[in-house]
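Summarise what follows for lecture notes:
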Amino acid sequence: MTDLLDTSVLIGDDPVRNASAVSVISLVELASGINRPGLSPAETRVRRARWTAIESMFAPIPVDRPVLLAYLQVDQAVRSVGRDPRPRRTDLLIAATALAHDLRLLTRNPADFLGLEHLVEVVTP
């Protein structure tokens, strides 16, 4: 089964795995990190180079109608276990992408996806 790489995996030392996919949401998160205030010019260059490399390696999966429909399930699942989905919308959109495309979700932060175990297979590297 193909893995959808969460942003936490993409920023790691060895982000690329065989048979992997990424969500456009992860590229948005990485792009946001490039422009963070207070970064040194060297760190900005490193982050921009990483974003460029990842963007060129993958054809990111867009947020389309199937992902939006899957998000409804993800949102409901998170709320059903008493969690507020608002602070984790980008993570949950990544989970919805995995659900819509029948992908395993590879993350270094499995706690971000609590309550989704019955919808998405969440694995750590």
About this structure: The chain has one domain: 1-124. The chain has a mean pLDDT of 92.
